[in-house]
Every structure is written in structure tokens, then in C-alpha cells.
């Protein structure tokens, strides 16, 4: 068995996204993974849309209905950053379905990677920052509801703080939310998670990787998660259009391998989502987003 990779052709976004939303990066990521041999027909899993019952474990019914019926008001759509069309509503449910499948496969095989996801700015009753539904929160809620997990950890290394995820699990002792992000990046008002490391603008590889190595092992050992969800956003990269950190590609690859190895060495299942990454250089985005998948692929194949 090779590393399970979750992809759907409709992850590639064809709706008018926000100015920075690189909709076609998802298709390019899948092409890249096929070219490099990470994806073949044996390890490719195709998700289904998250159903209403799954979404309602996290999101409030009025918000789910407004997304489904495209009745969000303009202010709510502006906060999301693009019009919530029927296609956008379908796409966000597909992404959540992919996260649920990634979680299930990680529990079954030890690791699994989704080629989309990381809607961490979505709260219970509103979306924001290109996020409509919070796919990782939905996945954790579904797996817990089914009795497959009790305790879990979200490692969110996207450059933006995962305010939605932190708020959703704020009073939930079983789900630990850990974020390393840039203090100067969106959202302006962060929602406190269980551990937030806010780094100053311009932080590079050395200090970033030090912060990760100081905190992650202790969280894994003390919280004892039965599943880790890793948001491997690549927007801390030095050439990202939105992020203000200065990680190199080598730094991101070390980061991703470190998280994967820390979980696998402890026998903790890890599921990843790709998170943010913003640039007109789509081949670079695809290559950087593949980093976490390649990190898991190499270890998975050597087990
Ligand atoms: Zn981001």
C-alpha cells in the first residue's frame, strides 16, 4: 500500500475567485504529483461532498442553508472574498468531504494527504478569508461523532492564524489547536487557540523551525492525540503574495518532514490539507504544495 492521496478533478476552481485566489493550483498540484510518481491509480482516492449532517456537526443550520441556497448577504460574501455561487457551495462541500476521507484513511493506514483544504478562517456561522466551511473542523467532528477518535491535534502552519478552527474548538478539551503564524498577517483579530506562536514579519527558516521544534514534541506527548490534522499552508514562503514570513523552499520542506516524522515516529496517524499559497507562479505553488505529500510519501513507502 502506498500513501493514500485524496483528489477530485473538481478541486480545480473555475468560479471567479478573489484577486489572489489561485483556483487552478489544485489541478496543477495533481499533475505534478502524477508526473513525480506520487499519485497513480492505486493510491488515488476520490471524495464525495460532505453531507448536511456532517456540516451541521460544526456549522449552524442557518449558515449552511444560506450557503446552499446562495442567500448570503453581500457583506457575508465580501468577508469570504468571492461570490458564493452554486459551484462554490459544491466545491467547499467537496473539500470538506476530502478532509473527512483523509482523516478516515489516516486512521486506517497511518497517513493520508488531501490535495485541497485548510479552510481555517471559516467559523460556525460565517465564512472569511476564502473559506466557506471549515473542512478540518468538519472532519474531526465527523470522526469523533462516529467514535473513531477521542482526542486530536490540529497543527496549523499556514502563515495566517486559524481563527475559525480555534474558535470552533475553544471550549473543547479534546481538540488541541496549535498554530505558528505571522503576527502581522490576516486575520487582524486572532481567536486564541490552545497554543499560538505569533512570529514577527520577516522571520526566516532558523527561528521558524526552532519554534516548531520547541513546541510540537511536547504537545504530541502531553495531549496524546489519536489523530493529527496538519494544515501545511505554504504561504510562509518568502515569495508568497500574501504571507509576510521569509521561509525558503528548503525551510518548508524541512518543516513538513519534521511534522510528518514527529507524528509517524510516535505512531500517531496524520492527515494533511494543503492550506494557503498565493502567487501567479503556479508551477512553484504546485511544487511547494507537494512538499507535505512528498514528505509523507517517502516515509510511508519506507515503512
Ligand atoms: Zn494562509
Kindly describe this structure.
The protein has helices spanning 25-35, 52-55, 61-68, 74-80, 86-109, 135-145, 163-168, 205-223, 249-265, 282-302, and strands at residues 5-6, 44-45, 111-114, 152-156, 175-182, 195-199, 227-231, 270-273. The termini are close together. The protein has one domain: Arginase, Chain A. The longest helix has 24 residues, at 86-109. The radius of gyration is 17 Å and the shape is globular. It is of the alpha/beta class and 303 residues long. Strand 1, helix 1 (25-35) and strand 2 form a beta-alpha-beta unit. The protein has ten helices and eight strands. The structure holds zinc ion. Zinc ion binds at residues 158-160, 233, 235, 275-276.
Classify the secondary structure makeup into a structural class: alpha/beta
Output the CATH class name: Alpha Beta
Kindly state the number of beta strands.
8
Strand content: 5-15%
* Sequence of strands across the biggest β-sheet: 2-1-3-8-7-4-5-6
Give helix % range.
Answer: 40-55%
The ordered string of helix (H) and strand (E) elements is EHEHHHHEHEHEEHEHEH
The rounded Rg comes to 17 Å
The second-level CATH architecture is 3-Layer(aba) Sandwich
CATH homology superfamily: Histone deacetylase domain
**Overall tally of structural domains:** 1
- Total DSSP helices: 10
- Global mean pLDDT: 95
Amino acid at each position: 500500500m502506498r500513501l493514500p492521496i485524496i483528489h477530485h478533478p473538481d478541486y480545480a476552481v473555475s468560479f471567479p475567485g478573489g484577486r489572489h485566489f489561485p483556483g487552478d493550483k489544485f489541478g496543477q498540484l495533481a499533475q505534478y504529483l502524477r508526473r513525480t510518481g506520487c499519485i497513480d491509480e492505486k493510491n488515488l482516492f476520490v471524495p464525495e461532498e460532505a453531507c448536511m449532517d456532517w456540516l451541521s456537526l460544526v456549522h449552524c443550520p442557518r449558515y449552511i442553508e444560506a450557503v446552499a441556497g446562495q442567500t448570503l448577504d453581500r457583506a457575508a460574501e465580501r468577508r469570504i472574498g468571492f461570490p458564493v455561487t452554486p459551484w462554490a457551495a459544491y466545491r467547499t462541500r467537496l473539500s470538506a468531504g476530502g478532509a473527512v476521507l483523509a482523516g478516515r484513511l489516516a486512521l486506517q493506514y497511518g497517513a493520508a494527504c488531501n490535495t485541497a483544504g485548510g479552510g481555517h478562517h471559516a467559523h460556525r456561522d460565517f465564512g472569511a478569508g476564502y473559506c466557506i466551511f471549515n473542512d478540518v473542523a468538519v472532519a474531526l467532528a465527523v470522526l469523533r461523532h462516529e467514535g473513531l477518535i477521542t482526542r486530536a491535534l490540529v497543527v496549523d502552519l499556514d502563515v495566517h492564524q486559524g481563527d475559525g478552527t480555534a474558535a470552533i474548538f475553544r471550549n473543547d478539551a479534546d481538540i488541541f489547536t496549535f498554530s505558528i503564524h505571522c503576527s502581522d498577517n490576516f486575520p487582524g483579530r486572532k481567536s486564541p487557540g490552545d497554543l499560538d506562536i505569533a512570529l514577527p514579519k520577516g522571520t526566516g527558516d532558523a527561528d521558524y523551525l526552532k519554534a516548531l521544534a520547541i513546541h510540537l514534541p511536547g504537545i504530541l506527548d502531553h495531549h496524546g492525540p489519536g489523530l493529527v490534522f496538519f494544515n501545511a499552508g505554504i504561504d510562509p514562503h518568502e515569495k508568497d503574495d500574501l504571507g509576510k514570513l521569509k521561509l525558503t523552499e528548503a525551510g518548508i520542506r524541512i518543516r513538513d518532514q519534521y511534522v510528518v516524522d514527529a507524528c509517524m515516529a510516535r505512531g500517531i496517524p496524520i492527515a494533511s490539507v494543503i492550506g494557503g499559497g498565493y502567487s501567479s507562479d503556479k508551477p512553484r505553488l504546485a511544487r511547494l504544495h507537494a512538499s507535505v505529500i512528498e514528505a509523507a510519501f517517502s516515509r510511508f513507502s519506507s515503512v
